[in-house]
Amino acid sequence: MKRPMEGVRIVEVAQYTFVPASGGVLAEWGAEVIKIEHAVRGDAQRGLVKLLGLDVVPTTSFFPIMEGPNRGKRSVGIALEVPEGRALLDELIRSADVFVTNFLPSAREKLRINVDDIRAVNPDIIYVRGTGFGARGEDAGKGGYDSTAFWGRAGSADGVTPGGADRLARMPSGAYGDSMGGLTIAGGIAAALYARKVTGEPSVVDVSLLGLGAWATQYSVNQALLVGGPLPKVQEPRHGSSSNPLAGSFRTADGRWLLLTMLQPTKYWPEFCERMGRPELLTDPRFAGDAVLEHGAEGGDIVAEIIGGITLDEWCRRMEGAQGQWALVQNAYEVGMDPALRENGFITKVVDADGVERELVANPVQFDETPVKSRRAPQFAEHTDDVLRDLGKSEEEIIDLKLLGAVT
After folding, report:
1. In terms of C-beta density within 10 A (0-12 exposed, 13-18 middle, 19 or more buried), how is residue 303 classed?
2. pLDDT 10s digits, 391-407
3. Contact at 8 Å (CB) between 361 and 180?
4. Residues ≥6 apart with Cβ < 8 Å to 296
5. Whether the Cβ atoms of residue 401 and residue 93 lie closer than 8 Å to each other
6. 303 vs 105: CA distance, rounded Å
7. Is this prediction's pTM over 0.70?
């Protein structure tokens, strides 16, 4: 299997999911990622107990909220505020290709891990910052999470909340924007590595949750900028759309939701009617040819009635081999068991610290049609001694560093 990032070393001083997720992706692509954790507390995310109302405390050594962004890394516990600990970071930086952080400007200043500090040790290193609101402007020093910067401020929450709702729609998953951000940062790092190889010049790479969120909602933002104001909250018919009966959500007789997105109703209406055993609709003047575009809401009610009268299994039987686009709305477990994901290698197996085989969603990029092989996330400071030995430290020196409180 080709692992295009083999030979690349990344030093990560970051926590939570946004930014660390980039290291998880790059590790699956073959990079060596050394995760620097606080010598006492570790990554702050290890202390989370609830997310979106769900308990996230692990009952075993397998901790999904840490496994996702930290798969395949090595963890080192270093006290960067201790001079001897900071000196160890410099040693790691000298042999690294990339330095990655999401610490706020005040913390970067205090710990001396700003661009100039890192480049003073390794002038050729690629420096990567993940921020909430960008590296410039009055909000540059402000902390942010994907719930605030990506979901709220960048328009997604407003876009999925109906007009007049008494509560705001929340993110559909923990680390929703963070995970997309990690993949985005990984792409930026790959581009910077290529640019350095071609030009010899290292880059400073910046990705913000706000910028990522605006990119995700760019169609709406671009449209709003064009019209010069907020977009109206369009109230679509309950079933179908005003101009397309085959675009919308519909519920089967056994309570399963289907999403139909057949954007060319004049093309797919005949196929739908034939497969549903309703040939009379083909000659109904309301839906013949382009007339279907004028009667989307009426047609949508008919489609809802048809689908509501059959089970999901019956729908699937009738639609087997159909050209029209549709999908079953799946819950998280169904996604994990999705045959297409599994057949294409996007559910990967890892062995946890207890030797138990587990499963994770793999990053969505494959090279040469080959699924990734991932490794579990590290336990806190699991690799401190090994990494120090790689730096040439003797066992006596390692013990001394621990006594000084420089490492864990």
Report:
1. buried
2. 999 999 999 999 999 99
3. no
4. 237, 240, 241, 242, 243, 244, 245, 247, 265
5. no
6. 55
7. yes
